[in-house]
Specification:
The protein is α+β, with helices and mostly antiparallel strands. The protein folds into 2 domains: 74 residues, no CATH class; 50 residues. It is built from 7 helices and 3 strands, in the order βββααααααα. Strands 1-2-3 form a 3-stranded antiparallel sheet, with helices on one face. The radius of gyration is 30 Å and the shape is rod-shaped. It starts with 5 loop residues before the first strand and ends with a helix.
């Protein structure tokens, strides 16, 4: 029992919430996102207090508060949206294109880094990750003969 009106039962790896004598919701035992969503909904709708949820499920007060805040701000969908992650901060597609043109013009990585106020290591990592490629150096056989070669 969570309180006098609300309880839950776990059978066959499924948690079922019961209000009075009627089942109101079910989810998989390991589905943490859905648990956070339904427990927040129970609190916001007035079916259970945060303290009752904490006692019944053994979760911390702060985790319930965070879930309730998320539910109030974004609704049910907030629990299932893809987490935000940062994109490229320095090496954006236009900058990568500019760097590649400079590499194709046979500028060195330290020269490009100085020119664009970037760190040389950032450029080296981009090359090793395959985001940029260094052009092959021309072999001496295909290059113009030098004065030394003519003598």
């Amino acid at each position: 029992m969570i309180n006098a009106n609300l309880g839950f039962v776990t059978r066959d790896k499924t948690v079922t919430y019961i209000y009075g004598s009627l089942p109101i919701f079910s989810h998989d035992v390991d589905d943490l996102k859905t648990f956070r969503m339904i427990s927040s909904q129970l609190y916001v709708n007035g079916s259970a207090s945060q303290a009752e949820i904490c006692r019944a499920f053994g979760v911390s007060r702060i985790s319930v508060k965070r879930s309730v805040k998320l539910y109030r701000e974004k609704g049910m969908a907030g629990f299932f949206e893809k987490p935000k992650c940062r994109g490229p901060a320095v090496l954006t597609p236009p900058v990568l294109e500019q760097i590649q043109l400079m590499l194709d013009a046979e500028l060195s990585i330290p020269e490009i880094a100085r020119e664009l106020s970037l760190k040389a290591d950032t450029l080296r990592k981009a090359v090793s990750a395959g985001k940029l490629h260094k052009p092959q150096k021309k072999s001496r056989a295909s290059a113009e003969p030098t004065l030394r070669d003519k003598l």
